[in-house]
Amino acid sequence: MNSASDVLVIGAGVIGAATAYFATQQGLTVTVLDKGLPASGTSSACEGNILVSDKELGPELELTRYSLGVWHGDLAEHRRLWEFESKGGIIVASRESSLASLNRVMAAQARYGVVVEKLDPDTLRNAEPNITPDALGGARYPEDCQVQPMLVAAHLVRLATDAGARFVADTPVTGFLRSGDRITGVRTPRGDFSAGSVVNCTGTWAGELAALAGVNVPVLPRRGFVMVTEPLPPMVHHKVYAAEYIDNVGSSDAGLQASPVVEGTPSGTILIGSTRERVGFDGTVSTNALRLLAGNAVALFPFLEHVKAIRHYHGFRPYCPDHLPVIGHDERAPGLWHAAGHEGAGIGLSAGTGKLLAQALSGQAPDLDLSPFAPARFGERKENSTTHREEATA
Amino acid sequence: MTPIVSADVAVVGAGPAGLAAAVAAAESGAAVVLVDAGAQPGGQFWRHRPETVAPEQDGRGHHGWPTYLDLRARFDAARGRGRITYLPGLQVWMAQQIHPVQGDDGGFTLRTTPTAAVAALEASVGSQTVVARRLVLGPGGYDRQLPVPGWDLPGVMAAGGIQAFIKANGILPGQRFVIAGTGPFLLPVAANIAEAGGKVLAVLESSSPTAWLPHLRAAAGVPEKALEGAEYAAVFARHRVPYRTRTIVTEVLGTDHVSGVKTAKVDAGGRVRPGTERVYEDVDVVGFGWGFTPQMELPLSFGIQTRLDADGSLVGVVDERQQSSVPGLFLAGEVTGVGGATLAVLEGLAAGTAAAGGTVSPEKTAARHRRFAEAMHLAHPVPPAWQDWLAPETIVCRCEEVTARQLTDARESLGARDARTLKSFTRAGMGWCQGRVCGFAAACLGAGPGSAPTVESLSGSAKRPLAAPVGIGELAALETSDN
After folding, report:
1. What is the pLDDT of residue A240?
2. Residue A55 has what pLDDT?
3. Which pLDDT does position A72 carry in this prediction?
4. Is the pLDDT of residue A386 over 50?
5. Are residue B284 and residue B297 in the same domain, yes or no?
6. Closest partner CB to A150 (pick from B424, B466, B472)
7. Which residues of B touch A34 (CB under 8 A)?
8. Does B371 touch chain A (CB under 8 A)?
9. Domain count, chain B
10. Given pLDDT bands bounded at 50, 70 and 90, which one contains residue A381?
């Protein structure tokens, strides 16, 4: 048996890392387990977005705004460790219909305190000189930021261990320890780890881990491809995406969708994202996905036609059917907590999620109401819910 | 819409392995497509001056030139009969398996794009999509590099790069050379330089001739290698080329170009022996060769079974017919284990015959060459202590300018123990060359001082979802037929 801790965080991706970091800041003793190395899942296969611009009104926008405050507040002193960049986002509309939708979204977001600035074709071209001549207008979101996500996860784990946390790599969880109904720890090939609270931060694997504890947490993978160009002199200055992107983020369509998201990076490469498909954990390269990404990117920035792609990568966004993350204590399995299912927004939301969860774990009322994210919204314990479904079908 | 070329057997690479495979498959009755990045057959090993400029070439400076001429004649004959479609100047950027459906046993698709250098030289054939029932991959390898202080100065080349330069251009890339690293390949490079009129100040071999003693049986099995060795000894004597063993370059000197090297003697583990330092001045080219890295991105893209070879390289596992763990996918040459051109030809002949459905009999010659290659790898290892030669500020990844300190910090404080995680945390291997140059070194640094990288770490660094850069405009024009 390994020594017991107050909090046992499962998963050293960006969510687990932030949870561990803020839990140690609360004075809790923390152990972090990962089945591999830090940041080896979705955190290493994304774009590092901290976006306000693509959020729908509601609990996710609240969490986003709170999280942004944490990035600029509690975590500000470490920003250079993870290449924090306040680059700002620009949404571009190239059709009258999408310009009209964009204007509606902007107005609603502004009412909720999102900083957004309308761009006419001239100001748009000043901000992004290489944008397509078809662009009719756009919106600038100066609050949108970017980080290097793997460095966020790795440094938050390191800062947590500097503050006394213990990190154990290559340690998959094979089962839960219980005392009566209560979860008291986990079983692993390296022995048992016991803790007052166990936090499931396993991203796309959160559903599997929850199932080991007998609870239903429907986190599913949604595949995305991102293409990377050869290094170039600065050609794209913001995170630039097309107005249709907003519709795709909230969509539940299983088919392949791609909306252009184009951004320059400090190293000179340009990232071209991103597709959304529900194909399980299938990692097969899809030429359709590459074709869509390329075509959309060229439509937004015509110069890209003559630029070479040097690699692409894909990741699996962990999403819940209602497109809200699962954050908080699972009353169906006392002692088990979840922080997962942040879909494509996990990097941005990690800071807020970790801080709020640490508050709740140490018995305080969190700064933001977590009830919209409550795990119990997915119904009874797994065995029961399965039974219910079977009865319903019969 | 990209034109589609169909065949029974597709072969990638026109070096010793691929050329032999294409010839054997065609002679076994298959319709063959040969895709190659070069402008003319031969690969790196038989790279020669443009045939348009010099139609008659005597093969000076080449080994096995008669073998090339024989394969080339058979290749030209098969092309003449319409059995081989030859697609030069194309790189495969993606290879995919077509999964079998009922009544059909599947096959392979290769998506190609013109090679930049070849496209610039002449009218290129343009991108092609190749579809074939069987696939033979003979992509070869490239010089394995280890960073040392100053290795990022202009004038530092891969040993093989110097040789390719001479073979392709007939002239030298400089006047005064130091060749360093390990393995028999340093010898022909130095000999080629000397024969072409260059001054080789020294050949520095980190290993020792006595390292061969335990492997004399394997060496004796391939007597022609001893003859080659004698030829080099004669060339070295004629041109007064000093050959120093247990010696390494500890630093390349110069401000904006190579001007000299600092060397030292090392012990059997590669640790520098204090007091043995020496400086060579007036050097304008330094050539490094630490063995070869097989070009594994295409084999890995099929998820084949891999293993570590005796030289620490990641290679594909094949059966006696050169078939990989993926049915219908055959590998030949360095991707099954670095073993030189003679072995590559034998493997290519077997792979091509098998891919065409012919019978392959066990090859005694190939077995002898494999034993020799293994002995060579064991006698010329990458010195275990090589990481000690690095200064903290030595650049390891030249594309992204990542230093040794950044990599060891990422390992020690952020837990990055494999090449993939190191790449994530430091950008080592994310630049233009996609880790082809620094991948092995970075994987060693992830493993830690004195340790060798694992299969998993090397696979993580060698997987390249785009096997070659491809134009975004070209991707946008892809057809929509698949998945």
Report:
1. 95
2. 83
3. 97
4. no
5. no
6. B424
7. none
8. no
9. 3
10. low
Backbone angle region of A323, left / alpha / beta, with phi > 0 → left and psi within -120 to 50 → alpha: left
In this structure, is residue B480 part of a structural domain?
no
CA distance B296 to B309: 13
> For residues B112-129, b (16+ Cβ closer than 10 Å) or e, as one string?
bbbbeebbeeeebbebbb
Which helix (H) or strand (E) segment is B403 a member of? strand B402-403
Note whether residue B346 is domain-resident: yes
Kindly identify which residue of chain A lies nearest to residue B426, measuring between CA atoms: A151
B416 to chain A, any CB pair closer than 8 A? The answer is yes
- State the residue range of the domain holding B420: 384-451
Q: Which residue numbers in chain B have pLDDT < 70? A: 1, 103-104, 117-125, 480-483
What's the average model confidence in pLDDT over A120-132? 96
Predicted confidence (pLDDT) at residue A354 exceeds the cutoff of 70: yes
| Contacts B115 to A, Cβ<8 Å | none
Mean pLDDT score of chain A, rounded to an integer? 90
Structural domains counted in chain A:
2
A360 has a pLDDT exceeding 60: yes
Closest CA to B335 of B458, B231, B245: B458
Specify the pLDDT at position A391.
Answer: 31
Same domain assignment for residues A136 and A284: yes
The CA distance from B387 to the nearest CA of chain A, in Å, is 23
- CA angle, B269 as apex, B267 and B270 as ends, to 5°? 65
Put simply, the answer to whether A297 touches B431 (Cβ < 8 Å) is no
User: How far are the Cα atoms of A323, A355, B30 from residue A43, in angstroms, in the given order?
Assistant: 18, 18, 47
Q: Identify the CATH number of the domain in which residue A109 sits.
A: 3.30.9.10
Q: A226 and A369 in one domain?
A: no
Contacts of B56 (CB under 8 A, 6+ apart): none
- A→B interface, C-beta within 8 Å: 37-40, 44, 150-151, 154-155, 157-158, 167, 169, 227, 229-231, 267, 269, 272, 284-288, 290-291, 293-295, 297-298, 304-313
* More confidently predicted of A24 and B482: A24
In a domain, A394, yes or no: no
Asked if A155's CB is within 8 angstroms of B466's CB, the reply is no
**Residue A389's pLDDT band (cuts 50, 70, 90):** very low
Q: Are residues B229 and B279 in the same domain?
A: yes
Cβ–Cβ below 8 Å for B469 and A312? no
The pLDDT value recorded for residue A259 is 73
Measure the CA–CA gap between B206 and A339, rounded to whole angstroms.
53
What confidence tier does A390 reach under pLDDT thresholds 50, 70, 90? very low
Contact of B170 with chain A, judged by CB distance below 8 Å, is answered with no
Q: How far is A20 from chain B (nearest CA, A)?
A: 15
Task: Name, in order, each residue with C-beta under 8 angstroms of B349's C-beta and a sequence gap of 6 or more.
Answer: B20, B21, B23, B24
d(CA B35, CA A106): 52
Q: How confident is the model at residue A249 (pLDDT cuts 50, 70, 90)?
A: low
Sign of dihedral through CA atoms B263, B268, B272, B278? negative
The confidence band for A252, taking pLDDT boundaries of 50, 70 and 90, is low
DSSP assigned state of B233: H
**Domain containing residue A131:** 89-142+220-319
Tokens of B320: 């006696």
Give the integer Cα–Cα distance in Å for B179 and B201: 8
Residue whose entry in the numeric block shows the structure tokens 């929850």: A210
Question: Please, what's the largest Cα pairwise distance for chain A?
Answer: 67
CA atoms within 13 A on the CB side of B194: 24
Q: Are B270 and B386 in contact (CB under 8 A)?
A: yes
Contact by Cβ (8 Å): B203, B180: yes
pLDDT of residue B211: 84
